[in-house]
Amino acid sequence: MSKVQNFDSMKVKKVYLILFISFSVLLISGVFYGYQIIKHPNILVDKEEARAFYIPKGADFKTVQDSLYHGGYVNDLVSFSFLAKLMKYNENVKSGRYLLKPKMTNIEAIRYLRSGVQMPVNITFNNIRLKEDLAEKVTKNIALNKVDFLEVLNDPKVAEKNGFISENFMTMFIPNTYEVFWDVSAENLVERMSKEYKRYWNEERKSKADKIGLSPVEVSILASIVYAESKKVDEMPKVAGLYMNRINRNIALQADPTLIFAAQDFTIKRVLNKHKEIESPYNTYKYAGLPPGPINLPSIPAIDAVLNYKKHDYLFMCAKEDFSGYHNFAKTLSQHMRYARLYQNELNKAKRYK
Question: Number of structural domains, the chain?
Fold first, then answer.
């Protein structure tokens, strides 16, 4: 073999060696990078606590990328995006609230987000007077806009679909704390509340309502008056008994809180004779029986107080003059007027004139 041939052979081998080494380096680098992409922590790597991650309805993969990056969730967005596209997550983005944990790997995070398994949120509502109040409180922790939810609450067709009319539709919402998905729609939320209402009004409660001659809706309307009159749970059955006495004897309820509701002025601290002249179906001084709808969302203890009202002969009540929140109860008008004068005198001393 000539020196030229020998040199050419060595040159070829050198090229092969370089190519082999280069390929090996690339292979090793690729394997290492692949390992890094799949197995190395990339989510909240410097954090100790999990964080909620929100994906709005209609969001695309670009929105997810931006939120992960600008929210400080992801350490290496490129590796996350590369694997996400391999796993076709970019074509399957699902809205919701997700709880991302510290030191999650890309594959763990992508599988989780792609699953659509959300972490629910709590909605709590109580001390509600109007539909506007309900819409604001219900939507506080969810993506649903309060204006959109209020529109559904005011829709007569939605009320009718659920077995109510516009005036008493609010009775379907039992004040409590409920778990829902962050991206719940208005329609699904109403459906959920309907199920909770039916769950609450079980056969035992419906039977109790029937025995006292009221429908579940009427129980809630009366409970709203009881709840407005007294926040003292131990006194509620006694208050409910008084109003049941008036209903059973066909005497006008004459409940001051209904006048405040009729006036739509919740700053009123002292009900005056002029308020008794308000023309409204909620004026229980002018019109006997229950008003057409609730004057608030009564608490569960208030509803149960009506169902289990205390039997007695009282027909009148007046707030105690010590402003304790309790009431003086009377069987006769003359006795009631004595209690009323005591209370009015204390109001005057406190300079509460309206």
Answer: 4
